[in-house]
Design goal:
alpha+beta, flat, 6-stranded antiparallel sheet, 23 helices, 4-stranded parallel sheet
């Protein structure tokens, strides 16, 4: 047993509460929910006492913004996305013991009581500050209700808390020309009173607790905490001037609610209370999971939540006085999508509910790829081509191939009955030795939250198996020594059974299918590495493929979907180029713009850009014009069209052809060109002016 196992009798595992104003995407999965689920499944396999807690975070400004935009209530928004998120997690195999929500009565009451205790004991500081106020909407403006020009990159649509273009954290007072997103009016500054947690008072304790006592935390977590603690921590407001949220439970705080980052982490505790009330026979009292020193608390989060889970929430728990503190916070970095930052506002994401519809039965493929690309120490990248490659060359060609070979050969030679093990040869002993220490290796990685390396180690078992079967060639040996083949397949099947255990935390769906194929209901983690998991004479089920190859057209559909999103974003973000400097009417008069009728059009040989037009310009003599729009039109699309062209440009020779004018085109937001035409029929040669 590890030191942690002897020190702690049980583990409370929390996963960051997803925000209920949208679905869950692959960035969330890679950063939080897949690693958390792997860890919990691992502890359960080891028969350890563990609780897995999560729920929807349903307060805060973004929810009210979406509600106003859609003309519904904030509760309507929460109800919609809470159900979507919950069902997506269930279908994906994220095995929470409870998935609740912060709009529950239990949570409202507990969060309110938590704040009241801190207030009554003088743990909070009352401060009056100046904030922006919308005189038309008659309310103070939270950060996300204010937009203006970013002082760093001069993005005109920066929010009061962050500029999404350059990524700078902001305060509303830094914005240039701020305006209210509610009324559009310019806000005024007014004084308001709120209650603050004096983080500065906890700084000496935080330095010792984190920097001295938890130097084993991931470098990204430890480093971010150190950078904060090296500065002077300031009191942080625990209340906000908003309508949507948990009302501040004290006199003089009318119209104020608890800060969402005060109430959200308390949701871990309130959800535990809810679970223990529903299942006291299984989990006992909630205090056991949050107050007993022999309980280990582990938070799984993304890097953007490190400060809240390592500094603010622990300070809240310390101020309250009775709670255990997180023993580890294995935060991940961010996952990018096709070399671009995942963005919910730009819809640049792979949404879990859409993936489950587009890729039915392939939950484990995504779990595998996200773990293989886990951003454990630095940002990583997800691409659909890598997804296809890992499925086809690893899950199918290595893991699935080995299992299928072992099961099919056993069916062919022994009707699917596990044969007896005969005398071992050197290749057998070497293979058995290669996987006897797999349990220790996997535990070494999993206990340190190195899930990427742990999954590699599990896949290494399949590599060992494939190598063994290839070297032994049972299909050849069968012709001369059937007894020898019994031993080869016996050892191969023991490897297959070990794979069912080793991959259980990572790929629960395919592990369940594999257990069915080898006709075993369940294994214990302690059995991993054993060489007699399947006894001689044991009947296997009919072989089936564990994984299937992903064809190019399946992947192309996903790439096409992202490309459509990219183009939609470019169109939505399009801003007309600045108007050029003022020109006189006399300058305009010098241009002779006319209507021309296209009689003929063809591509110019040896040119990828040029089309050659034969234009009826109304003079009775056809005009030849070359235009660089071949990438956007086929010649036959343009024949018969009436277009605008400049008639009095000096002739210009290109590719040996004289061009007698210029056809006018508009440049679209995506850089494509669109030829300008007339709405009604106009005679060739008609002037524009």
């Amino acid at each position: 047993m590890t030191m942690k196992e002897t020190q702690f009798k049980r583990t409370t595992v929390t996963a960051a509460l997803p925000y209920a104003n949208g679905g869950v995407h692959i960035g969330h999965l890679a950063g939080v929910y897949v690693p958390a689920d792997i860890y919990v499944r691992y502890l359960r396999l080891k028969k350890q006492e563990v609780m897995f807690v999560c729920g929807s975070d349903e307060h805060g400004v973004p929810i009210t913004i979406r509600a106003k935009k859609e003309g519904i209530t904030p509760q309507d928004v929460c109800d919609r996305y809470h159900e979507l998120i919950k069902k997506s997690f269930e279908a994906f195999g994220i095995s929470f013991d409870i998935y609740s929500r912060t709009t529950s009565k239990t949570h409202h009451q507990f969060a309110s009581d938590f704040f009241k205790k801190l207030y009554d004991e003088g743990k909070l500081v009352e401060k009056e500050t100046e904030q922006y106020y919308d005189e038309q909407a008659h309310q103070f403006l939270a950060d996300r209700y204010i937009m203006g020009e970013c002082p760093y990159c001069h993005n005109e649509n920066a929010y009061g808390d962050q500029c999404e273009r350059c990524g700078h954290d902001l305060s509303p007072m830094e914005l240039i020309n701020p305006h209210s997103t509610i009324s559009g009016s310019k806000p005024v500054i007014r004084p308001t009173k709120n209650w603050y947690l004096p983080l500065n008072q906890y700084q000496p304790w935080l330095k010792k607790w984190i920097l001295d006592d938890h130097s084993e935390w991931r470098s990204n977590v430890y480093g971010q905490c150190k950078s904060w603690l090296d500065m002077d921590l300031q009191p942080r407001a625990m209340t906000r001037d908003l309508e949507w949220g948990i009302p501040v439970p004290i006199k003089g705080a009318e119209g104020k609610v608890l800060y969402v980052w005060f109430d959200a982490p308390i949701g871990y505790i309130s959800n535990t209370i809810e679970l223990c009330k529903a299942h006291p026979e299984r989990f006992g009292s909630w205090e056991k999971w949050w107050k007993q020193p022999d309980t280990r608390l582990v938070h799984f989060i993304g890097k953007d939540n490190i400060v809240f889970h390592c500094i603010i929430f622990p300070s809240m728990l310390k101020a309250y006085g009775d709670f255990i503190l997180p023993d580890n916070v294995p935060a991940n970095e961010f996952l990018n999508l096709e070399d671009d930052k995942i963005s919910t506002s730009r819809n640049w994401a792979v949404w879990l509910h859409e993936y489950l519809q587009d890729m039915p039965g392939k939950q484990d493929v995504l779990r595998y790829v996200l773990t293989a690309n886990a951003p454990e120490t630095k940002d990583n990248n997800f691409t659909w081509r890598d997804f296809q490659e890992r499925n086809n060359s690893e899950l199918v060609a290595i893991y699935g191939n080995f299992v299928n070979r072992a099961l099919q050969l056993t069916k062919k030679y022994w009707n699917g009955v596990v044969p007896a093990c005969g005398e071992l040869q050197d290749v057998d002993r070497q293979t058995l030795a290669e996987f006897t220490d797999v349990k220790a290796k996997l535990e070494g990685y999993l206990d340190q939250f190195k899930f990427r390396e742990a999954q590699k180690e599990a896949m290494n078992l399949a590599r060992i198996g494939n190598k063994y079967i290839t070297e032994c060639e049972p299909w050849k040996v069968w012709k001369t020594d059937a007894k020898r083949v019994e031993t080869i397949l016996y050892i191969s099947l023991q490897l297959v059974a070990n794979l069912a255990i080793a991959f259980e935390p990572f790929l629960p769906f395919s592990s369940e299918k594999l257990r069915h194929l080898i006709n075993m209901e369940a294994f214990d983690w302690v059995e991993l590495g054993k060489t007699d998991l399947l006894k001689a004479g044991h009947q296997l089920a009919e072989p089936e493929l564990l994984f299937e190859k992903l064809e190019d057209d399946v992947i192309q559909k996903q790439l096409d979907k992202l490309e459509a999103t990219r183009k939609a974003n470019e169109t939505a973000a399009y801003h007309a180029a600045p108007v050029k400097e003022t020109a006189s009417f006399d300058d305009f008069e010098k241009l002779d713009i006319r209507v021309g009728h296209i009689k003929h059009c063809e591509k110019v040989k040896k040119s990828k850009k040029l089309l050659q037009f034969t234009i009826d310009d109304g003079t009775g003599v056809d005009r030849t014009i070359l235009s660089g729009i071949a990438a956007y039109y086929e010649p036959e699309q343009l024949v018969g069209k009436d277009v605008l062209f400049v008639a009095n440009f000096a002739p210009r020779t290109m590719m040996g052809i004289e061009s007698q004018g210029m056809i006018l085109s508009a440049v679209n937001a995506d850089g494509t060109l669109s030829v300008t035409t007339t709405i009604d029929k106009v005679n060739p040669g008609s002037q524009v002016g």
